[in-house]
């Protein structure tokens, strides 16, 4: 059984017991959260697709940790113009564990 959820402007395919890193969600470590923007639920051959969301479908998850991704280095340069710009960015994330999918 798996589901496709939308959170943080991105879509993720999730299944039971899976851990994934999503955009930051408010909450303490160990807290239970409910993700209600479910786009698709598949259980074997049975497939429920929403227009755009599946009515009444939710995904239960637990917050495992909060953290920051690896640094992404941005380097811009104009040749022959003595222009160089260096910049770095680290995006915050919340790691969650999927506990249940209900359709």
TrEMBL record:
Classification via NCBIfam families: L21
Family, similarity comment: Belongs to the bacterial ribosomal protein bL21 family.
GO biological process: translation
Gene coding for it: rplU
Any one annotated GO CC term: cytoplasm
InterPro entries in the cross-refs: bL21-like, bL21-like_sf, Ribosomal_bL21, Ribosomal_bL21_CS
HAMAP family: Ribosomal_bL21 (MF_01363)
Protein name: Large ribosomal subunit protein bL21
